[in-house]
Design a protein that fits this description.
Length: 423
């Protein structure tokens, strides 16, 4: 299922056709280019999580799971499930970064999180054939409100960032450049094996493989390849999920879905939990489905956001306040839906046949940016624990070491000495 540029509803021009917005405008072409987006998103991510650079630290499972299991098990840890699914991206980063001196590991893990955000934004930007739209969608990834900000500058939460590219990949044709096609395949391979989100998009992976009256009838090798990778990854994660018994006992009440959606619109559009403003913005988002161009992108994005919120209600059951008042773990459950809504708003700028829709987009984007800065653009400082790590770094491997990490309530890392051969 790919939006067709022939019908004027696609994500961009046909392959090989230059974007008219850039003809003769080398400045615009340069600032919206892939490398400019990569550097820009990397810098913004570092600013939003600046405390990780000023006071390096491991965040939660970055230390106690990914670093520690790589330290004790090496390559075997690459295929070790955690929380019921594979997290290949975090495992590969942990293995590669282990080649550096121990002292540098906390800051390298944080920078690894910024690299993942940058890679995701570039993949989004080069997947969409319309350069301005691709640029804005990529930047929206790191400009959405995210209270506490623990998705940024951490590897443990990389799956929440990488998943934001999946709807764009599903609805877009093949990237124009062979380099970016290879990049998209590599990114998709990592993304579907990092976290459970590929499972939520199972219907769309099937539609990439099987033509229907509602999708482009010209499904080619590229579309089927994308569908096959997504489907295989989703089935692997589904198998791991059930074999590990991770779903456990779940309760569900539809009563909590509106409450969680109110939080989503509060986070994305600065509604401050105002029922009136949240209702108006939600109605405006639904209205965007009227406009034909990029409609499929909006449908898949809103579906993805809705499924995540519904499953969040399922996970927390009768105790949604645990999610709403948790200022450390709670905000990440609203990150992907907020990014999806931001993408919907951004897409309105490119409705040539309905120019008035741009005003709706301007209003939504203005509210989004106001909410982002009102909620705190820069993550607040964590407990400064790097001094402990710096003192322990030269003893790691030779003796048992205990090191505190963030968040403060998380148990410390217990690092055993390495077993020496012949001892």
């Amino acid at each position: 299922m790919t939006e067709s540029p022939r019908t004027g509803t696609g994500t961009g021009a046909a392959e090989g056709v230059p974007d008219p917005a850039f003809e003769g405008n080398w400045v615009l072409d340069m600032v919206t280019g892939p490398w400019a987006i990569a550097i820009g998103v990397f810098v913004i991510t570092c600013i939003r999580g600046i405390d990780a650079l000023l006071h390096p630290h491991f965040w939660a499972e970055d230390g106690t799971v990914f670093w520690l299991e790589n330290y004790t098990s090496g390559l075997q840890s690459l295929v070790t499930p955690y929380a019921g699914y594979l997290l290949i991206t975090q495992r590969v980063f942990a293995w590669v970064l282990s080649l550096a001196p121990y002292l540098a590991h906390p800051i390298l893990f944080s920078l690894g999180g910024a690299v993942v955000a940058s890679w995701t934004a570039v993949t989004i930007a080069t997947t969409v054939h319309s350069r301005p739209l691709g640029c804005l969608l990529g930047i929206a990834l790191v400009m959405t409100r995210h209270d506490d900000g623990n998705v940024f500058m951490t590897l443990v939460n990389s799956q929440w960032i990488m998943a934001c590219a999946l709807p764009v990949i599903i609805v877009s044709p093949a990237p124009r450049s062979k380099v970016w096609r290879v990049n998209q395949l590599l990114f998709l391979g990592f993304a579907v094996l990092t976290g459970p989100f590929a499972v939520l998009l199972l219907p769309f992976w099937f539609l990439k493989l099987v033509p229907t009256p509602w999708t482009d009838e010209r499904l080619g090798v590229w579309e089927r390849c994308i569908g096959a990778i997504g489907l295989v990854g989703a089935m692997i994660q589904l198998g791991v999920l059930f074999f590990t018994g991770a779903p456990g006992a779940l309760t569900f009440s539809m009563v909590h879905v509106p409450t969680l959606w109110l939080r989503v619109f509060s986070d994305c559009f600065g509604a401050d939990r105002s029922i009136a403003l949240a209702t108006l913005t939600s109605a405006a988002v639904v209205m965007t489905l009227v406009f034909p161009r990029h409609r499929l992108l909006r449908i898949v994005s809103l579906y993805f956001a809705g499924v995540i919120m519904t499953l969040t209600a399922l996970k927390f059951g009768a105790y949604p306040r645990q999610l709403l008042v948790d200022t450390v773990s709670g905000p990440r459950y609203f990150f992907i839906p907020a990014v999806m809504l931001a993408g919907v708003a951004v897409s309105l700028f490119f409705e040539e046949k309905h120019p008035r829709s741009r005003w709706l987009g301007i209003v939504l984007i203005t509210l989004m940016l106001a909410g982002t800065f009102d909620g705190g653009f820069v993550r607040r400082d964590r407990e400064r624990v790097f001094e402990q790590w710096s003192h322990a770094a030269d003893r790691i491997g030779r003796e048992h070491v205990t090191v505190k990490i963030n968040p403060p309530y998380f148990p410390p890392m217990e690092i055993p000495p390495l077993q020496r051969e012949g001892v």
